[in-house]
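Lysylphosphatidylglycerol synthase transmembrane domain-containing protein structure dump, as promised
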Amino acid sequence: MKKHISKWLSILLPVLLGIFLIIYTYEKFTAEQILEIKGYFKNADYSYIYIGLVMAFLGNASRAYRWKFALEHMGYSTSFYNNFIAVNIGYLLNLTVPKSGEISRAVILKKYENVPFDKGFGSIVAERIIDMIVLLFFVIVAVFLQFDIVKTFIIDKIPLKKLLFLIVLVVLFFVVLLRTYIYSKKKWVLKLKEKVSGLKEGFVSILHIKKKWSYFFHTSFIWFSYLFTFYITLFVIPQTSNLSIGAIMTAFVVGSVAISFTNSGLGSYPFLISKILLFYSIPETAGNAFGWIVWSSQMLLVLILGLLSFLFLPILNRNK
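C-alpha cells r here:
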C-alpha cells in the first residue's frame, strides 16, 4: 500500500507543482501582459529553434553512441539503433513518471540485446553520475563568472548576522547527517549505504573503459549540444539576444537544474528562467515567453522521437 502511495505521489507531486507554478505565474499577469506574451510567441524567429532541435537530436545520438562504450566494457555489444531508440523512449517516459526512463532503457536492452537488467541499469547510473559532475562544473563556472553580482545580491538581501547563522546551521546539519550515515545501524541508513556503494562502483567502472577518451569526448559533445541549443535559442526574441556570457551560463544552469530535478521542467522551467532573466533586466513577460518557447519545442522533439521509437522498436527487431 505504501509503495503504491509513494509511486503515485512521485507522479502527481511534480505535475501538481508544475500546474501550480503555471497558474501562479499567469494570475499575476495583467490582460495587457498576457497580450504581450502572445506577441512574443507570434513574432518569434523560430528558425533558431529549428537549429536548436537539430543540435538536440545530435546530442541524443551522441548519448546513445556513448552508451556503447560502457556496455562493451562489460562484454556486451549492442546496436546503435536500439541504444538510440531506448534513449528516446527513456526521455519520453520521464515526462510521465520521473526517472522511469532509466528503467525503461535497461528493460529494452534486456529484451532486444540480451543485456542483463542490472548491468544495463548500472551503466545508466554511471553515466548519470558523470552528467551530474558536468552539471556541477557548469554551476561552479556560473558562480565564478557572476561572483560579484551574487556577492552583492547576498549582502543586499541577507544581513551578515543571518548569513553567518545560516552557514553555521548548514555545517551543523551536515555534521549530524555525516555522523548518522557513518555510525547509524538503522535500516534506511543501511539501504542508503548500499545505493551509495553502487553509485561509487558504477562511477569507478567508467574510469576503466578501454575507449575512455571516446566516452569523455561524447560526454563533452552531449553537454556542448545542450549549451549550444540554449545559446542559439536566445535569438528567438530580441530581448534575450544580447545577454552576457555570465548571464547565459547562469540561465543555462538554472534551466538544466529545473529539467533534471523536476518532471522534465513542466511549469518550473519557464518560471525559473523568467525569474533569473529578470535579474538581468529582461522583462518577466519576455523571459516567460522565451522559457515556454524553448521548453515546449524541446518537449515536442522528445514526444516525436519517443513515439517514433515506440513504433520502430518492434519493426527493427523483428528477427530477434
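The chain has a mean pLDDT of 81.
lmk if u need the other ones
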